[in-house]
Amino acid sequence: MQARVKWVEGLSFMGESASGHQVLMDGNAGEKAPSPMEMVLMSVGGCSAIDVVSILQKGRQDVRDCEVKLTSERRDEAPRIFTYINLHFIVTGSDLSDKSVERAVALSAEKYCSVSLMLGQSVRMTHSFEVRGETLVPHA
Fold first, then answer.
1. Which of 13, 107, 125, 128 maximizes the CB count within 10 A of its CB?
2. What is the phi/psi pair of residue 43, to 5°?
């Protein structure tokens, strides 16, 4: 895997993936774009959410929505690395069981999410979830 990061102006940088996608990053506390550390936090959420949805779909679960709310703590002094990250999954679907969502979250955390597993080497990581049922509204 390869990528490129190019200075734009001030402390703004454009990252470009090998697949040609671009993302702006900002070192000025996120004035113009997410900071690199915010990107790391969003990356672990994205990686884990992809796993959870994929696992549920493969298990023929009727998942309709998945949101991950991330909470983190960082050191006060440099380097300001993450010391703690919680991923809270809110999964919505029809007839979703707590057990199936719990299993999907655990598999992501323990086996599949490379970002989470990499960060987990130095960051205390926790996972929580809630399952929401979807109420179908009949058409008039």
1. 125
2. -65, -45
State which H helix or E strand residue 9 sits in: strand 3-9
Q: What is the DSSP letter of 101?
A: H
Strand 124-133 with 62-74, pairing: unpaired
Instruction: Say which DSSP state 50 is in.
Output: H
What does the DSSP 8-state code read for residue 139?
Answer: P
* pTM, entire model: 0.89
CA distances from 92 to 51, 66, 68 (A): 15, 6, 12
Q: Which of 39, 89, 40 is nearest to 63 (CA)?
A: 89
DSSP string, 44-95: HHHHHHHHHHHHHHHTT-EEEEEEEEEEEEE-SSSS--EEEEEEEEEEEEES
| Span 39-93, pLDDT tens digits | 999 999 999 999 999 999 999 999 999 999 999 999 999 999 999 999 999 999 9
- Single-letter residue type at 16: E
The pLDDT mean for the chain works out to: 93
